[in-house]
Amino acid sequence: MNPAPDPEELPNATLFTVINHLNLYPNPNNGLFYLFLDINKESYTNISIYSLTGAMVYSENRNINTGIIPFNFEQLSPGMYFFTLQFPNERRTLKFI
Known about the structure:
mainly beta; 4-stranded antiparallel β-sheet; 7 strands; about 55% strand; globular
């Protein structure tokens, strides 16, 4: 019986970004918060923030990697927002106050 192949050795195994863990804290916050991200490789992503009404209030494209990323949005009015990460193969949205 042949052992299962190591996924890292398969062709195109790291073609896609895999999100292992994602957390935004503190939540609720006063506009200063951190994104904890654990992904399998550095990846180009779009970071967007939407208001409760669906209006985009922030958008940025950047390369990100596993780590803790600080954000400062003290200029936003108090309320509920949606923080979205759009990778080439996956989209994740977190709600924050």
